[in-house]
Amino acid sequence: MQGKIGLEEHFALAxxxxxSRPFVPPDYWPELESRLLDMQTRRLALMDQYGMExxxxxxxxxxxxxxxxxxxxxxxxxxxxxxxxxxxxxxPDRFQAFAALPMQDPDAACRELERxxxxxGFRGALVNGFSQIGKADSMFYYDLPQYWPFxxxxxxxxxPFYLHPxxxxxSAAQIYEGHPWLLGPTWAFGQETAVHALRLxxxxxxxxxxxxxxxxxxxxxxxxxxxxxxxxRNAWVKTPPRYPAKKxxxxxxxxxxxxTTAGNFRTQTLIDALLxxxxxxxxxxxDWPFENIDHAADWFDAVSISEADRLKIGRLNAIELFxxxx
Length: 326
Hints:
This protein has 326 residues and is α/β, with parallel strands linked by helices.
């Protein structure tokens, strides 16, 4: 399929590059480093070769979210966004941008999102999971009350918020002790992000801000497969849910969440996500440079779905969601 649009596609700054080193064996690091730092050369050649018209770019992980000092996080987020804006300006027909945000300071995050959308023309934000604030051993999630003004701004701007994974901190990762292979994209990324998403669904923020749009990668971090059980556990026991939200969590999942194919090129998983949230809430992505563009494109171009759904997922849904003029 020609004209595909991807929106979990990453780059790195010199200051954030080392954050990505642990995700590949040492022998592969020079290749990943080259991929992360390239913006306009190899990336564009691969996009041309595999039918990608556009990438919406975002900073690598955890980057800003792993900086406990709020002032430092705010400064680096602003510089990363200015750098990305300059790169997009070179080829706006091929690249658009997600803002990096200093969620350590919700007011600063609001200001930076507004600046990026209104002044730089960014299409939304991508945030790498929880933020560390004040001390390294801290984990702050965005269902907390201090973040509700931020969600008001995101809704008013009408731009999506991509909740991207990161690993839990060592102090919260006892379940993985002795099994480091379970960290990262193998398992911990999905579990960490799925719980964060469920917290957002349950806290009531979508009741107050029903037009909020949240994006999850990797075909929903396992939630399409598990959301029914979240809402229907022990269904014979007639007790109300013990969370503030007014609806079943699956209702918010289907209404307020969009899922991308980033890093999950599995037909059965795509069909499950399609049946759960519908073709209108699915989006194509590759997860470059951590996954291969050819692996994503070869699978998606041949996957057993209707051509109408392929066009929606590969292109049309992104044009609508991000108000792209293509």
